[in-house]
Amino acid sequence: MSDMIRRYGFTLTSTFCLLTAFWLLVLVILPNLYLFENSFRPYLPVVDIGGPKDVYTLKNYLTFFDSPIHISVFIWTVVYSSIVTFICFVIAYPLAYYLSKVAHPRSLPTLFLILTIPLWVSEIMRSFAWFIILSLKGPLNILLIDASVIEKPIRWMTGFRSVLIGLVYTYVLFMLFPIFNAIQSLDTNQIEAAEDLGSPWWRTHWRVILPHSKPGIASGSVMVFMLSAGSILVPTLLASTSSRWFTEIIQQWMFESNDWNTGSAYAFLLLILCTLFVTAVMRTFRVKLSDIAR
Amino acid sequence: MSASVELENVCADFGSFRAVDNVSVTINAGEFFSFLGPSGCGKTTILRMVSGFISPSQGVIRIGGEDMRNSRPNQRPTALIFQNLALFPLMPIWENIAFGLEVRGVDKKKRRERAEELLRLVDLPDAADKAVSQLSGGQKQRVAIARALAVEPAVMLLDEPLSALDLKLRQHMRAELRAIQKRTNVTFIYITHDQGEALAMSDKVAVMSHGKLQQVASPREIYDRPANGFVASFVGENNVLTGTITGESGGSASFETALGTFAARLGPGAGKESKLYLRPEHLRLTAEPTAANRIPVEVTDVAFEGNFISIHTRDATGKALVSEARNDGRSQIPERGARLFAEFDADQAVILADGTPARKGEPA
């Protein structure tokens, strides 16, 4: 602190600190605390708030466990978020390897520009774009029929199909960049050493490159999984009647039933259960939190 | 098992830059062969072509008589030891060593046995389960050697593997490498810019400059009979005198310089653009000269190096000449400002075609 004051002066230092504190406290901690506190209170008519019925209770949380439909929606959300994460990995790993070890360094800026251009458009617009692309008489079906790949148009937006496509599209870069960083930090000599010792390409990946990029894969997976499970825009726009996302239930509690208490409880359940799930998966793959922060 | 390596008119081009220029050389099976040259002379490119990571732009490389044109690095009977060793940090030592066997489908128990056997060979019997990061530089070096030996290569390729070690260890590893080579009888191709290493370890040395071979010969011949001015000045030190050849007879000639005319041996390819090369240890300083080749000089500086004494002098024209004498602990060291004669024997001075001087600090 005294070091910062010496370097930037008192005014600048206190401005930095106050802004950071404001952001953390007012925009992150307080709203969450408010929801957290609310999640333990019953949903009451306005007149009863603060009255004798307004006591702390676990009832909101228990609502979830009493509702098989909500539990199943939660499980499917976790399952499909995992699938999204896996698909993202399958797309991002070869691409990251290509970008970090195969592509000429001079062409990297161009390639990254091409990759990031979609991010210039807001998520909601991109989801709408997929809504149009995937519609029954949309461009994708027309293209596939014209190319004689399919005979009849495919109903893309049924089940979780379109949600998967939308989520993968939206979050694949969150997988790409950490893996790219991880592979780039691998000494190319190690890849060559493996090859020189007679290793075929797949074994080099399995024994040398994949283990080295594990922290990158882990942090990318955690990000993609958490973002997917917590996504509301893509499921709202691209889901069908047969696919419900857990965030949609939270939204229904809050905005359709106006029951913010149960909604908050569900939101925290999503956070807690997903964290547990991620921790369990990380244990299985022997990834430490410190690896990810590296 | 060991194999010969033949390079026939091999060239390597990177864009318009020719890194290796028409190199033809035969390395015999079981030989310790060094490529010696300043950085950027193309020696590492040769190594990478032999191991298969770069394809020659022209020419043929044969290992054991077999054309390697269509063989990938993982199909060649070579093992490369990288300059930074490139051990796999996430595997324990024994898995590092056994990696080549794992690739070849050897079962785990045999792999482990072989790894331990090789660890004994490189004098690291207890390291099997250690992590790479737990080893010192010299130990890592040995693991890299063991890892390469595990695949029983016909040819070992070493890319300046000792350059990261400190002096004492480097000298120790020199002897060790040489011993391992003799024991296994594998062909060693060694890349270095350190002439001491090349001379001390090799059966044969190839001196390179600007992508071209300058001389291929035994260490003794390289030092005593350099083929041109580049080899003479890159390998060891030399006093260089400019002048012209005035008379030739048999293998010797008289050479006229600003300091006088001297008799000297006529080197290969000596002609108009020739210079006289004179090793410091062949230049004697004395008050009473006996040899015909003598130059009056004044001592400008004396550097005591321990096992030898380096005496810097200047002649009448201001030309600096360096003389080296072995320190026998008895003889008197001349003082600065002393006026003496520098003398040398005709058969120890050589007239050579002017080679490209060794350029220092060039990018690799």
Account of the protein in words:
- The complex is a heterodimer of chains A (294) and B (364).
- By secondary structure, chain A is mainly alpha-helical.
- Chain A contains 13 helices and no strands.
- In chain A, helix 8 (188-196) packs across helix 9.
- Chain B folds into two domains: 5-229, P-loop containing nucleotide triphosphate hydrolases (Rossmann fold, 3-Layer(aba) Sandwich); 237-353, OB fold (Dihydrolipoamide Acetyltransferase, E2P).
- In chain B, the strands form four sheets. In chain B, strands 6-7-8-3-9-10 form a six-stranded mixed β-sheet, sandwiched between helices. Chain B has a five-stranded mixed barrel with strand order 11-12-13-20-14.
- In chain B, strand 17 (308-315) and strand 18 (320-326) form a beta hairpin.
- The longest helix of chain B has 18 residues, at 167-184.
- The chains are: A mainly alpha (294), B alpha+beta (364).
- At the A-B interface, helix 8 and helix 9 of A face strand 6 and helix 2 of B.
Give the topology.
The complex is a heterodimer of chains A (294) and B (364).
Chain A: H1 2-38, H2 59-65, H3 68-102, H4 108-116, H5 123-134, H6 139-146, H7 161-184, H8 188-196, H9 201-229, H10 233-238, H11 246-256, H12 260-284, H13 289-293
Chain B: E1 5-14, E2 17-27, E3 32-36, H1 43-51, E4 58-63, E5 66-67, E6 78-81, H2 93-103, H3 108-121, H4 137-150, E7 155-159, H5 167-184, E8 187-192, H6 195-201, E9 204-209, E10 212-217, H7 219-224, H8 229-234, E11 239-249, E12 252-257, E13 260-266, E14 274-278, E15 284-286, E16 293-304, E17 308-315, E18 320-326, E19 339-344, E20 349-353
Parallel strand pairs in B: 3-8, 3-9, 6-7, 7-8, 13-20
Antiparallel strand pairs in B: 1-2, 1-4, 4-5, 9-10, 11-12, 11-14, 12-13, 14-20, 15-19, 16-17, 16-19, 17-18
Helix pairs in contact in B: 2-3, 2-4, 3-4
Task: Say what the CATH topology of chain A is.
Answer: MetI-like fold
% residues in beta strands of chain B: 35-45%
Separate helix tally of chain A: 13
Q: What kind of oligomer do you see? A: heterodimer
CATH class descriptor of the largest domain in chain B? Alpha Beta
H/E element string of chain A?
HHHHHHHHHHHHH
Give start-end ranges of low-pLDDT stretches of chain B: 357-364
Report on the biggest sheet of chain B: 6 strands, mixed
C-alpha end-to-end distance of chain A: 24 Å
Mean pLDDT of chain A: 89
Pattern of helices and strands of chain B: EEEHEEEHHHEHEHEEHHEEEEEEEEEE
- Biggest chain contact: A-B, 17 and 25 residues
State the low-pLDDT regions of chain A, or none: none
The rounded Rg of chain A comes to 24 Å
- Please state the structural category of chain A: mainly alpha
Pfam families (chain A): BPD_transp_1
Membrane topology (chain A): Multi-pass membrane protein
Family (chain A): Belongs to the binding-protein-dependent transport system permease family. CysTW subfamily.
GO cellular component, one term (chain A): plasma membrane
